[in-house]
Each structure stands twice: as structure tokens, then as C-alpha cells.
Amino acid sequence: MSKTWRTRLQLAGGVLLILLAAWIVITGGGGDSSPGGSTTSAATSATSQTEAGEPPSGTTESGSTPDSGLETIAESQLPPEGRETLELIRSDGPFPYDRDGITFGNREGILPDQSRGYYREYTVPTPGEDDRGARRIVGGQDGDRYYTDDDYASFAQIEEGQ
User: According to the lineage, what is the superkingdom (predicted)?
Assistant: First the structure.
């Protein structure tokens, strides 16, 4: 390989690294795990469920909480794996998945607006799934907790102790 081609390849690689770094900064670090990258469809899905008067899947008919305005789900209505995950969160682990406890960026805009780093997400295992599945509990620094079973398209605030 000639010296000219080597120099061109190094230059192209450097430019790619700069572009990648800029993309990471612009998108907020990429530390959230919202899949698919399409926040519009997730927000639209949740909005249409609310407009239709249907609670997000897995929620109770008990209404909205004063702090979030979201539908609620009683802790006792969570799947058994959700109740186990909630206990792990309360006892600060140990958690079975490496990504448990990572920052949840709320890119969908469904949860109440908070500063970056306020929310953390935790896996609720789905029996029969080979991966982490679509179920999560997202917890806020003030102890507010939310459940999703549809890959962040909708959330219900967990009524703990209920």
C-alpha cells in the first residue's frame, strides 16, 4: 500500500471518528436504551391510547396519579417478575442484567419532564424471551416508579403497597 493511500485512509478514519463523536454529543450520549430511535411513533401510540380512553396495557382502571397524570397500576397487578424487580430496586440489587440501573432518557416524552439522569430503568424479565424483552420498570430519584410492557410506548405509574 502506498503512503498516499495510507494517509487518505487515516484521514477518512479520523473524519469518521469526529462525526461519530459529534453524533454522540448531539443525541445526548446514547446511554438510554430507547429502541428503534423513533420517538414519534412511541409518543403517537401513547397519545392515541389516551385519546381513545383506554389505559396502557397492564394498567388498572383506578385513574391518574396527581404527580404524573398517567394511568396507574397497583403493585399487586404487576406480573410476578415485575414485583420481584421492584423488590430488587428497593434493596438496591444485585440486578441480573448489566443494563439495569442505566439512565432512562425519556425520549418518548411520556413520563413527567425531569433533568437528565433523574430516571433509571430496570428489566422485568419475560418468561420465554431470549433477550431482555419489552417490560421495564423506570424509577425516578424521588421514588416515583413506572411500568411499561410495550417497549416504552406507554407507562403506568406504580402504586406501591397496593
Answer: Bacteria
Residues 63 and 1 in one domain: no
The Cα–Cα gap between 100 and 143 comes to 16
Give yes or no: residues 70 and 130 share one domain. Answer: yes
Q: What domain range is 132 assigned to?
A: 34-159
| Three-state secondary structure call for residue 78 | coil
Residue 72 phi, psi (nearest 5): -120, 160
73 shares a domain with 15: no
**Phi, psi dihedrals of residue 40, rounded to the nearest 5°:** -60, -45
Q: CB under 8 Å, gap of 24 or more: what pairs does 29-32 form?
A: 31/102, 31/103, 31/105, 32/102, 32/103, 32/104, 32/105, 32/106, 32/107
Is the pTM for the entire model greater than 0.85? no
pLDDT in tens, 102-161: 999 999 999 999 999 999 999 999 999 889 999 999 999 999 999 999 999 999 999 999
